Amino acid sequence: MNKRAAALIAIISLFQVTPAFAQHAAQKNALLDVERKWVQAVKDRDTDALDRILSNDFVFTDQDGHVMDKQQYLDGIADSDFEALDLVQMTPTISGKSGVVTGILHEQGTFMGSLVGRDLRFTDMFVKHHRRWLGLASQGSRLDSQP
C-alpha cells in the first residue's frame, strides 16, 4: 500500500471514530444533567420531579447502612430541608444501557429530621429506559468525622 492510500484510510477512520466519540460524550453530559436535576429536586423537595427521575425499583443506601426503597426515599426527602446541596465533583461512566456517576456532595440542613452538615462520597447508578436515564441506586459514604 502506498503512502497516499494509507493516509486516506487513516483520515476515513478518524471520521468514523469521531461521531461515536461525540455520541459517548453527549451521553455522559446527559447523565450529568440528570444528576444535577436530581440534586436540585432534592434541594427543592420536589418529589414529583424525583418520581420522574428515579426508577420504580430505586434503592437508596445511606451512610449508616440503612436501605430505603423509592417511596421511603421520597418520604424522607419530603421531610428534609437542605440549606445547601453542592456537587463538588462528578465523574460519569457509561457501559451500554448502564451509567454510574461518582462524586462528592456537600450537604447542610436537615435530612429526615436530623441535622446534617457533611461531605459525602456518592455513587449513583442509572439505567437507560426508553431513551431516558433513570436513577436505579444511590449510596453515600461520609468523608468527614462528624457523626
Written overview of the protein:
The protein is an alpha+beta fold. Strand 3 and strand 4 form a beta hairpin. The chain is elongated. The termini are far apart. The mean pLDDT is 87.
Sum up the structure in keywords.
147 residues; 46% strand; 6 strands; single chain; alpha+beta; Nuclear Transport Factor 2, Chain: A; 3 helices; 39% helix; six-stranded mixed sheet
The proportion of strand residues reads over 45%
N- to C-terminal separation? Answer: 68 Å
Question: How many structural domains does the protein architecture include?
Answer: 1
User: Could you tell me the radius of gyration in angstroms?
Assistant: 20 Å
Helix content: 25-40%
Taking the sheet with the most strands, its summary is: 6 strands, mixed
Q: What is the SS-derived class?
A: alpha+beta
Which fold name fills CATH's third level, the topology?
Answer: Nuclear Transport Factor 2, Chain: A
| Order of helical and strand elements | HHEEHEEEE
CATH top level is Alpha Beta
Task: Name the average pLDDT.
Answer: 87
Strand line-up of the largest beta sheet: 2-1-6-5-4-3
- The appropriate CATH architecture is Roll
Number of helices: 3
Count the beta strands. 6
Low-confidence stretches are none
Shape: elongated
